[in-house]
Amino acid sequence: MAAAGGPARRPVDVAELVAGVRAGRRGAVSRAITLVESSRTDHRAAARELLAELAPDPAARPSVRVGISGVPGVGKSTFIETLGEDLTEAGHRVGVLAVDPSSVRTGGSVLGDKTRMARLSVNPAAYIRPSPAAGTLGGVARATSQAMLVLEAAGYDVVLVETVGVGQSEVTVAGMVDTFLFLTLARTGDQLQGIKKGILEIADVIAVNKADDDGGPGDHRAEARVAARDLAGALRLVHGRGEWAPPVVTCSGLTDVGVDEVWARVLAHRDHLGAEGLAAKRAAQQLDFTWALVRDELEQRLRRSAGVARVRDEVRAAVLAGELAAPAAADRLLAAYDD
Ligand SMILES: Nc1nc2c(ncn2[C@@H]2O[C@H](COP(=O)(O)OP(=O)(O)OP(=O)(O)O)[C@@H](O)[C@H]2O)c(=O)[nH]1
Ligand SMILES: [Mg+2]
């Protein structure tokens, strides 16, 4: 375990890492993911080499990539644990990753609390990786999508990506998976207010979770069914004829009721895409990802720019004092960057 912080910065042995990942060795998988998460220049070069070596065989059956989102506490981790156990029992190998926007600010992590997936985290057919704890959302997204490639090369044929349902992270995750599953609750007040319209547009499958009798008084199953019916009605207004209309089902991740049904809908969505549709979707995602990487890199160059650093304080003071209008200030900064 010399990778993390040994004083002797040994160069990365990419060939050894490739062999280890391909053999499905957990230690190698962990080190490979740490490598693709690293922002060190020499690591970035090694990571590129690694990913080129691990590139999937185009003739092989593609993995199943599913994003799972919903507000904090909706039951994503519990659902993933139950689904993961069911899938590994059925012979799949399941990788779990997280994109956590809060980790970008606080250094925390959605999956940091592994006890929430106590069974899956000791399951030999599963691999759980918490969200990288630092960086921009773009950086975390890059790390996550590359970690996905590592897991796939290691033989994980299902990859589940958990993300908290706040803002841009959902759109980011939707841009790197085949199917986007949105978990919601029956009792979040007005269904349509509780769920941002944007979510309804990116969700491929929706499940009203906690449809069980484990959460206090009331008939949660009946409430969940009513909520699912209302949502399905609302979705018909959003989606046109002939398009995939996201099915709305009910489930309980905690008691493993309806989870198989949710998975069946995920697979139905894949069938709807078809092999060509899936390939086209992934290709389009790669193009979007390319530009996201460029934007991310440009932002970092902007931050590192010596020219910008020279005028930044002065421009800031002038704008705050009302002496310089924003468009003129932006021109000054851009001119300083271009110098
Ligand atoms: N009744 C009931 N409770 C559940 C269910 N799933 C999760 N819970 C409970 O809800 C709480 C939150 O569950 P998590 O699985 O951690 O939720 P999460 O969406 O991953 O939460 P964050 O990662 O913090 O966003 C826990 O106390 C769970 O025991 C369910 O299907 N039914
Ligand atoms: Mg969670």
TrEMBL record:
Keyword terms, alphabetized: Hydrolase
EC number: 3.6.5.-
GO MF terms, alphabetically ordered: GTP binding; GTPase activity
InterPro entries in UniProt: AAA+_ATPase, GTPase_ArgK, P-loop_NTPase
Any one annotated GO CC term: cytoplasm
Domain AAA+ ATPase, residue spans: 62-243
Superkingdom as given in the UniProt entry: Bacteria
Gene3D superfamilies the UniProt entry points to: 1.10.287.130, 1.20.5.170, P-loop containing nucleotide triphosphate hydrolases
Pfam families tied to this protein: MeaB
Annotated family: Belongs to the SIMIBI class G3E GTPase family. ArgK/MeaB subfamily.
Protein name: Methylmalonyl Co-A mutase-associated GTPase MeaB
Species in which this protein is naturally found: Nocardioides donggukensis
